[in-house]
Design goal:
By secondary structure, the protein is of the alpha/beta class. Helix content is 29%, strand content 24%. Strands 1, 11, 12, 13, 14, 15, 16 and 17 form an eight-stranded mixed β-sheet that branches. An eight-stranded parallel β-barrel has the order 2-3-4-5-6-8-9-10, surrounded by four helices. Strand 5, helix 6 and strand 6 form a beta-alpha-beta unit. The longest helix is centred in the middle third of the chain and has 19 residues.
Length: 384
């Protein structure tokens, strides 16, 4: 089992808070994902999950493509070593500048989310003397049964093109200069822990493919997005997600045509478990009704608890005292700067190291300088 080992003695010389990445676990996760996808799909890493340059470089060297949602991510991916042809560019609001950045780089595909966006990409491509390969993101109206703020595939979500508009969108692409229709793209949400939503997506894609073939439309690629979740409650029990079950769902259910390539975009499941936020305890504060453990890390370093109400497993790395119950909070001047309430933690004193686990995705990438706090640094197990 690839559980994380924390080098406490080496942490002593580092300023907290910081992100700690276990590169051995990352490598094991990459190997597991590649093995499970072998012969079926091309994996594009979702850069938004963690854009740390060293993490990106390691993923690029492992042979993955990149899924980007901004011009900045495209630049970061190329700088880290991803081949431009292996980059797909998604996002509901691509600016002209970002479109030009992508065309200049020669990326593999734009995942288009509306007819106005398609027409704008075509216009810019013609001006630049380029051809943009496009896939249409279709909203499949599939409920991923995940948090409301990270579900993306229902009819009321802002993402994608309605299924009823799919054929007309493709016909428009066929009539435009500067664009070339490549395929279909889907993404139903994040942190999905059951295979049923992915099976439902595959069945919906089968229906849409039949509809396109009845129209005489040939589709070269299918992109099923990402969404595979991780175990936030017990990271050491499931350090590597069940990639096999994820890909086997599509092997069993999705009817690919012989000429088609399958793509997916995994992010959280690749980097989530290898990263932890390391903080020190500043104070233990006792009130009439509560005991607080106040950390030097807060919502500026890890915003998921404040933004989504999510809970990360936490452990005191330097205490073997009996567990006590704490509200574990940060120093930011917001009442929402709370990591956990009534949380059992080994008896805690000032100076203890606390690890907030499963923070390798949407942790460092979403950090902010609110309250003029500096961005957290990162360190790596193979460099300490």
């Amino acid at each position: 089992m690839n559980t994380i080992k924390f080098p406490i003695e080496k942490f002593q010389r580092l300023d907290t808070p910081f992100y700690y990445y276990d590169t051995a676990l990352l490598d094991a996760t990459l190997d597991a994902a590649k093995a499970a996808a072998e012969g079926l799909a091309r994996i594009h890493y979702a850069v938004k999950a963690c854009a740390n340059p060293k993490i990106l470089g390691r993923i690029a060297r492992a042979g993955f493509g990149a899924d980007c949602v901004s011009g900045g991510e495209i630049t970061a991916a190329i700088k880290a070593g991803f081949a431009p042809a292996d980059i797909v560019f998604a996002g509901v609001g691509k600016s002209d500048r970002e479109i030009r950045t992508a065309l200049e780089a020669g990326i593999g595909c734009f995942n288009v989310e509306s007819r106005p966006e398609l027409e704008n990409i075509g216009r810019i491509a013609v001006e630049m003397g380029r051809t943009a390969r496009v896939a249409f993101r279709i909203n499949p109206d599939v409920d991923a049964h995940t948090h409301a703020k990270i579900t993306t595939g229902k009819a009321e979500n802002k993402f994608g093109i309605a299924m009823d508009d799919m054929v007309q969108a493709i016909r428009t692409a066929e009539s435009l200069e500067g664009v070339e229709y490549e395929g279909l793209h889907f993404h139903i949400g994040s942190q999905i822990l059951e295979t049923a939503p992915f099976e439902q997506l595959a069945l919906r894609i089968n229906e849409l493919q039949d509809r396109l073939e009845a129209e005489g439309i040939r589709t070269a690629s299918i992109n099923v997005g990402g969404g595979l979740g991780i175990d936030y409650d017990a990271p050491d029990e499931h350090p590597v997600p069940d990639f096999q079950a994820y890909f086997d769902t599509f092997r069993r259910t999705l009817r690919l045509r012989p000429h088609q390539a399958l793509h997916c975009e995994l992010g959280r499941s690749i980097t989530g478990q290898c990263g932890s936020l390391i903080a020190r305890v500043l104070y233990v504060k006792q009130t009439a009704t509560k005991q607080f453990a106040i950390l030097d890390a807060g919502m500026t370093e890890l915003v998921r608890p404040a933004m989504y109400g999510s809970l990360h497993a936490m452990q005191n790395l330097t205490s073997d005292r009996p567990a006590e119950t704490y509200d574990i909070v940060g120093p930011v001047c917001e009442s929402s700067d709370v990591f956990g309430k009534n949380y059992p933690l080994a008896g805690t004193v000032r100076g203890d190291f606390v690890a907030l686990r499963s923070a390798g995705a949407y942790g460092e990438a979403m950090a902010s300088c609110y309250n003029c706090r500096p961005l957290p640094q990162a360190c790596f197990s193979d460099e300490l």
